[in-house]
Design goal:
mainly alpha, 4 helices, 56% helix, extended
Length: 81
């Protein structure tokens, strides 16, 4: 499934084994598919993505790894509310 493929990409980037994946039964009414189509934005706004999905995911993971103090502080503050 696409979700598992994304999880595998994340684990690969973090140098973690795929054995960390825990498979569970699908929940009732779960989403069968997530569709994203940027053709409208590309046509109407003359927009083009700067990164493909894999490169963007890797950049996002790297940002979180390099900015841990920032997002951990947010989690601490969120826990107060």
């Amino acid at each position: 499934s696409p979700n598992i493929e994304v999880v595998k990409l994340i684990l690969d980037r973090l140098n973690k084994p795929h054995s960390l994946i825990s498979y569970v039964t699908d929940r009732l009414g779960h989403d069968r598919r997530y569709a994203i189509d940027s053709s409208f934005a590309q046509h109407e706004l003359n927009w083009k993505p700067l990164h493909n999905f894999k490169d963007g995911l890797e950049s996002t993971i790297d940002w979180y790894l390099n900015n841990r103090a920032w997002w951990e502080a947010l989690l601490e503050r969120a826990g107060r509310y």
